[in-house]
Amino acid sequence: MNTKALRQKILDLAIHGKLVPQDPNDEPASVLLERIRDEKERLIKEGKIKRPKKTKTTSDKPHYENVPFEVPSSWVWTTVGDIAESNIGLTYKPSDICDDGVPVYRSNNIQNRRIDKTELVRVNAKILDKQYLAVGDLLICARNGSRRLVGKCALIENLSEPSAFGAFMAVCRSAYNPWIYLLLNTGYFNRYLDDSNSTAINQVTQSMLLAFRVPFPPKKEQDRIIYEISKWFDLIDTIEKSKEEMQVIISTTKSKILDLAIHGKLVPQDPTDEPASELLKRINPKAEIISDNGHYQKLPEGWCLTTLGSIGLWQSGATPSRLQKEYYGGNIPWLKTGDLNDGIIINIPEFITEKALAETSVKLNPSGSVLIAMYGATIGKVGILSFPATTNQACCACVDYKLEQMYLFYFLLANRENFIRMGGGGAQPNISKEKIINTVISLPPLKEQHRIVAKIEEIFAQLDAIEASL
User: Fold this and answer.
1) pTM here?
2) Is residue 54 very low, low, confident or very high in pLDDT (cuts 50, 70, 90)?
3) Which CATH number applies to 263-469?
């Protein structure tokens, strides 16, 4: 289930007046809008607010012409500027930041449509009254390096202490903020931002926000819509939480299946199978059979222990000098650790030339090679080449082996945590090719390897089907 799309569908129905029925006894929105304007005029005359400049954001009449879409007859089209006020937040210097200052809400303090106070910055600076937050304010990310984050917003439901908001944020103040909040979370508002941003800067300016044309229902219908959405979204939250929990269960189950597989507990043994020791003699007559290993004390009859280096030829890659342009842009695929996908690799992100292969230590790995990442956060990621390719120095490839390919793949996958531990801590953990080839592998008879792989893939297909249906 695509819960994100479901949320947008519910919001889309809401702003088109199709989520709840209209009540003919409701006061029409046109009457409400006229009362809002009268109240603004009164506050202006009393000097409590300033008269807004006459721009495209303000109007003396409801906005009926060239409306974005049709709404019920009891609704009106207006702008945010007609029903709300807005201003941007506080600019402060790094030297203003202190441990006991006024909290300043920023973009990262809005998470999943709610206020998150875990990373509040505090400042000691001059703060204008309008730059303090109030309960009921709608806090909006007005500018950000990521277009995806512009426009995200949250309602201020409570404040434990006086708090301000940052310069890249905006606050919308209105008695109708719950309705405006709903509108700012719609695809309709996102399309408006895309159409309005003619510059490279990702932002929603004050004029853009106040000019935003909004469908405006009667107040009682607003309340009914917001209540109905709250019920739907609570249900979707429950579904999403259950989905996340199920995904964790599926991931844990897959890990357990792999652990059972490499310890000989996933499929029954067949005493007529040729012992793995005989297979190992054919693969590598000089291979050492290990008899003492605490992690594999109770291997089934017919299995044996050896090292990864004994079952195949392993080679690491290299990176041609970026200073020599003639090394890049050829027709030889070149992969980095981020290209390993824990599956069959089919995408070719970058190419190098024949010259790079001839003049550098880069090695060509044949199709079918099993790759493993050795550096950084990707340690232990694996992949199988579906085409001949070279790799950077952070990848190691098993290029020649005589066992079941997918058994080797699943064994490496099962040992990811072990490889990560071998990499140690530090800013750039890594494992060497030597650590990989000295890793002990539990080797079943060849026929049992085939049965193990078939059973793993049967179970994984069932788990993947469950996950796809969530």
Assistant:
1) 0.69
2) low
3) 3.90.220.20
